[in-house]
Amino acid sequence: MPIITPDLCDEYPELVQVVEPMFNNYGGKESFGGEIVTVKCFEDNSIVKEQVATPGHGKVMVVDGGASMRAALLGDMLAEKAAENGWEGIIIYGCIRDVDVIMETELGVQALSTHPKKTDKRGLGDLNVPVTFGGVTFKPGEYIYADNNGVIVSPEKLEVE
Question: Which Pfam families does the record match to this protein (predicted)?
Fold first, then answer.
């Protein structure tokens, strides 16, 4: 079933929070949703790389990259690994690269922008901590839904019709 965020906002007005508009849709899946897994990192995608190698069925990785415009936190190889491991999608508060390949990958991907440079890998970052951007706090275990209309968050799983 496609996820339509305006319909979910209408159906669950008391539950959903709407993330401020800022993201572009880059992935092969235009709409996606699932349980939130958070990564907090700045110009180091080591934890993102670790997480895409784990089973992600029914999950969406929310990456707080501090809105950095100096390097990409996701590229084609990590996106393909995430898709292979069943991740529903990845939302990056920062940049991605290899956009043409990611657009063909069966994975939802939203990010602020693109940047051709990869990040350093220093092993820095935090997994499953609350992160805040776009006027919303993303908590591990809550739910996120995204499409071309925007991104919404709910404390509980929503029925998608």
Answer: RraA-like
